[in-house]
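Protocol step 6 of 9: fold each sequence in the batch and record its structure tokens directly after the sequence line. For illustration, a two-sequence batch is reproduced in full.

Sequence one:
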Amino acid sequence: MPGEDHDFRHRGVQPFWFWNGDIDEAGITRQLTLMWEQGIRGVFLHSRQGMRVPYMSHRFLELVDHARRETRRLGMTAHLYDEFPYPSGVAGGRVTLGDPQHCATRLVQRIYEVSDAEIYLPRGRVLNATLVPLSEGRPQWSRAESVIEHVGVRFLHETYNEASGLTRYNRRRYFETDPGPVLSFGGGLSADGEASRIYVSMQQTITDHKYWGVFIDPMNPSAVEAFLSETHDRYADYFGSAVADDFVSIFTDETFPEWSSLLPEAYRNRYGDELLTKLHALQDEAHPEFIELSRRLWELRLELFVGAFEKPLRDRCHRHGLRYSGEKPVLTLSQLGYMDIPGCDPGHTKAGDHPDVLGTSIRKNARAVYSVARFYGKAATLCECYHSLGWSATLQDAKLIADTLLLAGIDILVPHGFFYSTASLRKHDAPPSFFDQMPYWHLTRRMSEWIDRVQDAFADTVISADVVVFEPSEGLPTEAGLTAYGDLMWGLMEARRDFYVADSPMLELAPYPVELLVIPPLRYRPPALDRWIDAHPQTRIVELDAEDPAGGVRAVCDLIDSSVPLRVTDGPTSNLWVVTRRNETRGSSIWFAVNIGSVPLEVASKGPLLELEREFDTSRRPIGPAEAVSLAPFEAVLIRPESEHKRRSTERSPRFSLQEVHLSLDREWDFAPLDPNIVRLGEFELTIRTLDGSFESRTARVSSGPLENQLAESGLEIPVGFDFGFGVRPAPKLAELLLTYGTEFEVDDIADLVLIVERESVYGRWEIAVNGRAVSRDAFRDSVGPIPDAIEADISSHIVQGRNRITLSTSFDSSPPACGLLNPLYVAGDFAVNHFRDSVAVLSRRVASGRFHAFEENGLPYYSGAIDYTGTVTIDTEGAGADERLLTLGVPDSFTGSLEISINGCEPIAFPWSPYTSIVDAALFAPGENHLWVREYTSRERSFDGEAYDPVERICKPI
């Protein structure tokens, strides 16, 4: 196996490290060091949109080399990523730019009612046009006839050029442009008075794919070979043997086969039949050939993709001494067997929402990916997680997702992603960034250490199950069938029954006899599945009914016993998820349990004595059938059989009966934000003028963002010019424009204020004024305030009591790369935002006291950072003889943030998530009054998005 010498104890959190800014050596070293200090032991170097260093340039490779040397110095695992930005295949455009033979096409299917004399079709190559008469609204397939010979081409747009005549006597030249196919009813095509439909299939060149417009055909070996030579081979040429010495794997992302111009010939060679004349059968499930044609195309796409993409990528990785890793949609589960580190993409739900780790698609199913690794003997599994969780994400969200993924069988958590920079619009690239942009970043080590503890406990164990759920992709499932499949997996998890997921090829590799095979509803029964069933008569078979998925789940659970020696004595029993991990050499088991819900659970042993290990306590609490143990909301624990020395001892550790000290935080405090407070100014009055003064728009209210978004939002008109080319449709272009943005706020008895502008917020030549007085560009300096990647200027001398107006103007040449005021402006200082007048924020003196976590009430609606709360509390310490106490914080309902507290000046004690419990020295507490200091760490959604997460409705709402 390539890379076998790499230390695979470094699993855990290994993020996509988004290279999305002005990358340099100092920044690389600083950020890798920050990760290492918080227990992050590996990175995937991910070239991402926003990166200013040209991809695959010599400078880019120099920076990758610096990162390679720094990860080696720190002892971190490093992985390469094979694209800029994604999906994998175009090598940052190098494969398709100037090489149209590599470009992908798509199959476009359309159905038209026969009513007009002619039908204008989408632009592309017409592969099939079939006329089908209707009887009582139903297609009469036996009477279908091809009408493709009635398709022709017509120009669809008329224009002329003012100065393109051939002589000085003729100043205008007429053109028709934009040729497109037209199906004409003239010249013999007739529906004979019957109602009819025309089914049209077309092949279109993809021109609207994200990032590059075009994409490669991943079933075309020539295109894939060009991709490999521009990525894998370039890395190998530059690094030589170091590519295998210092990188573990190369990650491929999201590439999926859909249509290829190679398919018709391959279909003819494989099946001895013509594909193009049958494409209309794919447009109606009632067509008698729908299932057979769908099955053949499914098989053929898989065959071509594996031959052109999967095998060449795997072989090229191995040739260079790397593992093949990645996450992408696949046609069948066993297809992941070509990867050395197969991956998936669930793990994007906040605490309190239903976890998403068991999706019905393969790439969203963590247990399915674990099953591949188990059956094929893979080194590890990965999950690209936290994608689009949003800037409201907390460490509680991150840890709960990590726990459910660990429970499902994932080894490497790949957060999407760690941002090199959040400047300008980059912060909205599928946030969050669980990195140093988050105020709670310094507490991340606790999560890293917990994941290490869980994975150490899992060492030399496997998820052991004799139940297999058949993965239905090769059976062409219906939506109802997929729903039944999903319900089955959730039902098994909630009933604490372990299971694998497998398709036909994987069943042949099952690690031991399958006791029960559960088959979801399928359109098509794969012959390989029936052959396997016939060869294993000892296996019980249950086939689910799509009409009664719940009944099917109950029937399956009745046939198998849970291997979990734990029961729920109080609370929703379905909220307790447990996995059994078994050491097959020693014949011993451990269990990992997660309370996925927002309410506590009481659990007890079913009989044998067990030991429970919590994140905040490494000692092992005994669990018997008579004494229930409470699991806090979202808490995860390790459970083991009671150890031999405990069985021989009649004494229990005094730690298991510690006196509990409960401190409620839901009260009045003196409080102070550590950073300046901010008011987020994200709404503006926009006026557009031309630089020559020939046009001025009306004024409209817009949000910060690119100009095209603002125009769509406001309906503003702008002057548009045109470039006239010879014989092509005129192309619109912007005139030279001056954009003026205005916004207001009010001040009540506040003096010292700072204006903050995020870097790259404005393109072009911009000027800013407060109350008509210019703020010099020289007045701005690097900001050390509450907004990362920003500059700031003191505007105190420009401020008046009452209404204040900020005006930002920017001018630019036509067709800029990005224009408009892209980000909000911020005003920072020591103030409160306690109310609004006429939708204008009012800044007034900050109050000194308020309730915990009450942002709006305390005048901090847009604040992101840390907040200190101080106060006193009386604690009863009488009758407590132990040296330690069990300290529990009472937090408001639905609170999922991170805290640190100090009691009477002690070193801060971290409470990063639920349970907000810690074992502390009893000497910290004094009789009577005790001084408390509490520091709350927020996320970033209030400042970055102007929103706050509503845990009841489970959405982010504007402030």
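Sequence two, same batch, same settings:
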Amino acid sequence: MKKQIFILFLFLFAAAGMSFAQFGTAGGKKEKKSDLTAKVPIDKKVRMGKLDNGITYYIRANKKPEGRVQFRLVVNAGSILEDEDQLGLAHFTEHMAFNGTEYYPHNELINKLQAKGVQFGGHVNAYTFFDQTVYYVNMPNDAEMLEMGMKILDGWASKLLMDSKEIDAERGVIIEEWRGRLGAQDRLQKQYWPIMFKDSRYANRIPIGTEEVLKTFQRQTIVRFYEDWYRPDLQAVIIVGDINVDEIEAKVKEYFNDNKMPANPKERPYFNVPDNKEPLVAIATDKEASSANIQMFWKHPQAPKGTVGDYRQMLVRNLAENIINARFAEMAEKASAPFLYAGGGYGSFFAKLDCAVLTAFPKDNRIEEATAMLLKEMKRVDEHGFLQTELDRAKESLLESYRKAAKELNKTQSNAFADEYTQHYLEGDVIPGIRQEDAYAREFVPEITLEEVNNVVKDWITDENFIYVLTAPEKEGYSIPTKDAILKVVADSKKEQTEPWVDTYKDEPLFDKEVKDVIPVVLSENTVFDYKEYVLPNGIRFVVKKTNYKEDEIRMRSFAFGGSALYSDQEAFMVGNVANLVDEAGIANFSSSQLSKKLQGKTVGVSPYISSNTQGFSGSCVPKDLETMMQLVDLYYEAPRKDRESFDRNIETLLTQVRMAAANPQAKFMKDFYEMAYDHNPRLVVMPTEKDVNGIDFERVYQIYSERFADASDQIFIFVGNISDDNIRTIANYLNILPTNGKQKNEPKLDKGPKLAEGVNHSLTLAGTDKQGMVIVMGETRGFAGKADLRERIAVTALGEALQIRTTEVIREKMGETYSPYATASYDIDFDGDVSWLFYLQCAPENCASVEKAAIDLIKECVKKGCDRETLNKVKLQMIKERETQMQENNFWMGQILGIYMYGENRDANITDYEAMVNSITTHDMKRLARRYFDLGHYAVGTLKPEN
């Protein structure tokens, strides 16, 4: 469990291996002092070893999710190792792993997995980055599937066929993936990447590669990459799940011991990012950039990780990060702030380097000002340090997160452990286990001094190894500073005079209302869902389902009918923003940042919402903070904070987002399509205009909020999680003090939702400069006959899953004209009910027509044949396996119980008979549903092509 910084630009490359850590709390007796020079131990619950041929393995038994196991192959090789004629072939190799191994030739692997209920994409996938390639597959844990998991990993590790026909068939898919990455972000990256990684191999080894190599490479070129770098000493096998460790270890030895090292293995080189004495400044602009972003990096040698002392130092850095980000959040709250968001911290970079980073999204034409403010704040920290009160809150927060994670150990998902072991193998991150980490936190965090935290930050900002990256829109009226202007801001920041930080913490109670004990009365009980419904003296009803899926989680949701449908078309957009604007202002006498400070050390969150037909609250907490959650609910009724400055800041944020989105081709495409598809319904604001945003009135926002949350009479509150009888009494006591004046009693549920325009309609959007196309095909048929029939709903879901499988088989695999097709069919049981179907397909512009035709042909195929028995059997098993996992999550039960009350229906059969209902679905059902709801006289098509 390591703390790392997410460097914002990394999302462009799907760096899935870099993840934030979980943290936990204090408590318990004082233990013997740890030896800071000692090595951090490896968690005894993971079986770790190395075979004679060099393969490392990690095996751990874990019950979450039950009946499942994650198999993972980690290869210490990525695009950084490609030769000039191999650009993109590390990633192409990853694709070929799904197109033929000695165990599963051609596409047999995916077919067999789907036949066992394993979904391609969701349960089996991979990613390639500069220095690693990681594969995973989540499997049921029966004997046959465990054997198959071993064969899959062994096939990936050493037995890829690299069939020439499969390579040629996959080129189109890879090209479409490459095409999907084109756009403003790609063009911006090509401007700043060579500067940011000046004189480094990282500048020209982007994993997706080049179109020329992808189209023209020969088989022997990719085979050379595979044979050079897919070898035992560069591989780790990770298996975590509901397993017997001894048996799995024996299987690992059986399958992987015979994998041979090459006769003359190449040395695995590691590449650096050179030091730079002078600042490196990259200013990248693009007409389609959707936002401006400032990033400042200071490169440092990688911090050591192996000893207990190293771990303690990581805790010191975490505390500093917590305080810095709290300060930036408070600064961003002010309407006068030059940025919408700012953050900072310290973590991993590239090439075994760390970095300090500051980042911000500046407001329009305030780039230099935002840069100066970030640097000034770090100078303030350097000159005056942090405050003890800030450190105390940061400690409380860090200890609480460790406590929570340690308490949830036995409920931790297997993929989380697999992530940790991946980082241990690739980066040397320590893996002592969360309970040992919690023990370290409880020992070290209380004793960490203010001087230590102040000193650790002093080393972050240096004169050398500084990189400044600015990405910004290129448009009329938008001021972009020059490199010299940025360097002047940086130089001037060193002369800035600073004053000590002033802590705005409010030392007053959050809640001071008298709360009396009441006795809730059990109104009803559902033995299938295992919940009880209670009623209070004030008439409010609440539902409780006790679970043990997570030790430290209680989820809350409430609703009452009403929502934005009660308001005019002209006010619908404003009503949709009311709850967020009020929420952002804080609560009672506490601004948003003051409330965050007040709640540090607690794990609790509550937010109001207003949807089209309902209003209510969503929230979650740990059991010990339930009372605080209930206090917040009352305060949202009785004491919403009216703050003009917060309102103005949020309106400015919305305006900035609107202006930036206007340059995005896909945003314009979505706007054109949905406005056409729903006949320009005034209540459907796909992409608001500045006029829409400026029409949001401060006084009217609070008036609407008070109307929607004037009365809790009709609110039904649902609680799911680790709930004790004492918790139930707390819930009852606080809900009983909510206002129940009858002002909102029996408000109607109105149908004002947009309806799909009659007939067949098309929109064509010409936007963007890249050779990118996109097609959306969407149909909708109202009057869902299965509104009250659970089996019919399940059958519609199955039809959508079958449509996704066929779309992948035809448009991706057979035609090679898209990379990640999405297709579905779904139902809505509100009002008259409807069934809708949707395709979302990215492709080359010249292929838009053929992709559209292919989608329509798939609908015709469904209408004519339904789906074949083999596909239906895959879908059934997927749905059953997915339900088994869902039923181990609080969210699933919350959604089901919410539906019971929102729609006033009995859903017992959805639990007791789900598997039987799924298995009862026939190919005839698929055909019947398709004929009833796939209306080829009533759908909409949207097409996106480049401007030229």
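Proceed to step 7 once all outputs are recorded. Observation for sequence two: The mean pLDDT is 93.
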